[in-house]
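User: Here's a chain of 355 residues. Predict its fold as tokens.
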Amino acid sequence: MKKFFMKLTAIAVMPMLLAACTKDEVNPTPTNGGKEGEIELILKNESVADGTRAFGSGTTESWEKSISSAVLIVYNTSGTQILRRVLTAAEVNGSTTTPIKFVLPGVSADASCDFYVVINRNIADNITTKAKLLEELESDIASYNGTYANVTTKAMRSGFVMTGATTAKIAAGTTSVTMTVKRVVAKVEIQTTMTDAFRSKYGNGCIEIKKITLSKGAEKSYLIDQTANKYATVSSSFTSAQDAYCDKTGASKTNAYKYNNLFYINEKAAAATGSRIKVVLNAVYDADGNLSTTTDQLAVTYETELTGATGGKIARNGSYKVNAKLDGLTGQDVTLAVTVANWDALATQDVNLGQ
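Assistant: Prediction complete.
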């Protein structure tokens, strides 16, 4: 999970900073000696680990946490915008050592304000109320996905969209606010292998995974997390297909190839069996285990559903490792184990196919 900690500290108002207010800011009437209103913002980013990352570990990659732009929006108790501050990349990247300072206009001690941060995503100028911001949907989920080689080495879009929200009461002196910011998408890693049960049934025969398709995904999600109360009412028609990557590390007659896939999808509420995100594996059965000869090959399809952490629920910023274990040639014979990984907690799903 990616976390940023925002420390907002009320300090004495400086004329120079007041002059630098954005067009949405209004110079406040200072109270309590002029200490309310000016904020010192610190954004802290997790360090990026070096070295090779194991597939399915739920590691947060550097491109999954990079920041190109950020906007801070603050609303009063009526839901009216009292500040919108666009943060430059230089401000964000340097904020841990050089805090970003700005003014909250017209606030006084004991007033409550709602703070929102949106990263790597524009917010239209006409969205000036909290209600309008909460109506905003994220609808470009397809742009996160691509070939396995691409999604495992870079971001397919210009940064992962992340958001955070919290409410704080302005103190008479210093006001400190801590905010957690999360990616709006979930990460699904799928690894497919043959089991000993498969080899005992079919001897030298093997399965080659050609493509994996996810379907019945949510087309959109709310920009701001509202899953405590509701999910966006949208169609479940998002589909993404990806050719499987063959990981031959350690492969032998007793330790078959592993096939890897990685997808990004929108959050989705828990649902009954049949309404969850569907996983289809398109494969080839090779009778003699020699994939270079094709006369003995047969097309095989396996189907299952994502259980998520529980009941098919897919959480934003959730990371899911799916271990698909092939037991035989019939399409429903799959043992699926899901583990939730370290964006948030890793969920692993094991499914045995082909028994």
